[in-house]
Amino acid sequence: MEGWDPNTKSTLTQIPLLTTKAGPRDGAAWTTRLKEEYKALIAYTQMNKSNDNDWFRISAANPEGTRWTGKCWYVHNLLKYEFDLQFDIPVTYPSTAPELELPQLDGKTQKMYRGGKICLTVHFKPLWAKNCPRFGIAHALCLGLAPWLAAEVPVLVDSGMIKHKDDATSTSES
Amino acid sequence: MEAELKEMLNDLDSLKQSLPDPSNLASSILKLQSRVEHLTKLAKSAPVRRTKVQDMSAEVVDSNPYSRLMALQRMGIVDNYERIRDFSVAIVGIGGVGSVAAEMLTRCGIGRLLLYDYDKVELANMNRLFFRPEQVGMTKTDAASQTLSDINPDVVLESFTLNITTVQGFETFMSSLRNKSFRPNKEGSGVDLVLSCVDNYEARMAVNQACNELNQTWMESGVSEDAVSGHIQLLIPGETACFACAPPLVVASGVDERTLKREGVCAASLPTTMGVVAGLLVQNTLKLLLQFGQVSPYLGYNSLKDFFPTMEMRPNPQCSNAACLERQKEYLLVKPAREAAIIAKMEAEVLSVPEGPLHTDNEWNISVVDDSAPERTDATSSDALPDGLTRELPAADEFQKFPAAEPATATFDDIEELRKQLDALNAD
Ligand SMILES: [Zn+2]
């Protein structure tokens, strides 16, 4: 795991791995996979809470578990910046990772594709491909979103692209 | 509009006549007059939509939009150019490559185009070809339909504003490819070829999934994120490697990855590289559909060195895609007959060539080596890749089951219970 900080690495190894290779079009196998996704997400959320590093909320937005919505946040200079988080499970999942979207930041940073999809590091896709089908949603959040927020939120705040919601001078808070 | 402008000119004229003496007012009236005259000229040159053409004519007249294309037939390059009107091509991704490919096929008089994209036109797209600034804000599919139907109203256009990687988008994509209303007696699906012009791995894998399931021949295209290289690839389910048979290939740009500065940007793009790749893609499409020349199985483009690597890839018998494996089984059954037909055709061509070597004296001592056969490799062998090509992603590790690795906490196995458990964690 070259190119990852030790913190991400050690967190990642504690998230339960998945075993079922199934996508949303695979019927019963997808239900099995979905259970594994929940177990990994529950374990990861519990782990974050007990490490005092709670940083996201995510839940399925439809009964099939193909669309997920929630929130994520990052603390910079003692202020908490919170963003909506959403993504679809692609038909070719888990061969391809979900594309994580932060719609409120669309157009505010170069490190983003259209529609607010975050631009992952060169290290993410190779690691995901190598570990198919063992990585799931929890791993995508840990490997994709957490490092992205850590790298981009300080830049967005310092450049004035985003303002804290309590900032009195801010009228264009998104 | 022209009549209105003429009336306005008359009004201005009578207004000028009625003025007592040359004054400031007269000069502003003169200015107005010249403005109206300019507008009148513009109105006269306003676009006129051409009417539909019933049959493709080879007649060489200024007014025939197809004369130069039908000349391909007269010159013996293409046997029957008019067949192009029978073909349906689906283009997935109407960006820098897909929009240009769509325009080329439209100008060639393709029968029917199906366009797929979920995106809108942005000012940031203006470094590429095709879209115009006044189309900013329109969906790419609407903007493309507008331009393409103006260029050639003979082409049947169908547009789909959707994301093919989502479950719903994928189903619509599949059923649109199956729809045979354009040519009900066509074998197989409702389209002759799918062109993938998307800019990401996820969408390519979705196109691959659909085409494997439908046994649909397709072509993949791509431009590197540093904008200096690209490729096109022909994929025939069961016969060639599918997109999931091996990690995707990329044309090495020759730029050291470690010196490539990725900080602060996702991707660069150039109209040149995208135009070249679109041109290579549509050229290969025309050759495949109209059966002329050699259809390239894989053609890379390294713009920094002007190097074009080629190769051919056999399917992977251990491909992770189930539909690919089914197509491979089917292909093995028809392969002997297909190969016999190819050999018979080659023999017939050899017989029709005049006998004797072309240059008996060989004054320049040139030795002609048959380098037309591209390098052929198995989809999985990465060592045997031709120069200038590398793998973009690693292969999945050997899949190991984790025996009894289930954590003791996972006592619930009911999906509703698991959902509630996560919700409870989310609540505080
Ligand atoms: Zn395959």
Automatic annotation (TrEMBL), chain A:
Keywords for the protein's UniProt record, in alphabetical order: Ubl conjugation pathway
Any Gene Ontology biological process: protein K69-linked ufmylation
Pfam families: UFC1
InterPro entries (alphabetical): UBQ-conjugating_enzyme/RWD (IPR016135), Ufc1 (IPR014806)
CDD domains per the UniProt record, alphabetical: UBCc_UFC1 (cd11686)
GO CC aspect terms: cytoplasm
GO MF annotation terms: UFM1 conjugating enzyme activity
Entry-linked Gene3D superfamilies: Ubiquitin Conjugating Enzyme
Signal peptide: none
Positions of the catalytic residues: C119
Function summary: E2-like enzyme which forms an intermediate with UFM1 via a thioester linkage.
Family in the record: Belongs to the ubiquitin-conjugating enzyme family. UFC1 subfamily.
Protein name as it appears in the record: Ubiquitin-fold modifier-conjugating enzyme 1
Lineage of the species this protein comes from: Eukaryota, Viridiplantae, Streptophyta, Embryophyta, Tracheophyta
UniProtKB/TrEMBL annotation, chain B:
Signal sequence segment: none
Record bears the keyword ATP-binding: yes
Single GO BP term: protein ufmylation
GO molecular function: ATP binding; metal ion binding; UFM1 activating enzyme activity
Cellular component terms per the entry's GO annotation: cytosol
Entries under InterPro entries matching the protein: D-isomer_DH_CS1, ThiF/MoeB/HesA, ThiF_NAD_FAD-bd, Ubiquitin-activating_enz
Matches recorded under Gene3D superfamilies: NAD(P)-binding Rossmann-like Domain
Domain THIF-type NAD/FAD binding fold per the UniProt entry, residue ranges: 66-320
PANTHER family noted in UniProt: UBIQUITIN-ACTIVATING ENZYME E1 (PTHR10953), UBIQUITIN-LIKE MODIFIER-ACTIVATING ENZYME 5 (PTHR10953:SF9)
Family to which the UniProt record says this protein belongs: Belongs to the ubiquitin-activating E1 family. UBA5 subfamily.
Protein name as catalogued: Ubiquitin-like modifier-activating enzyme 5
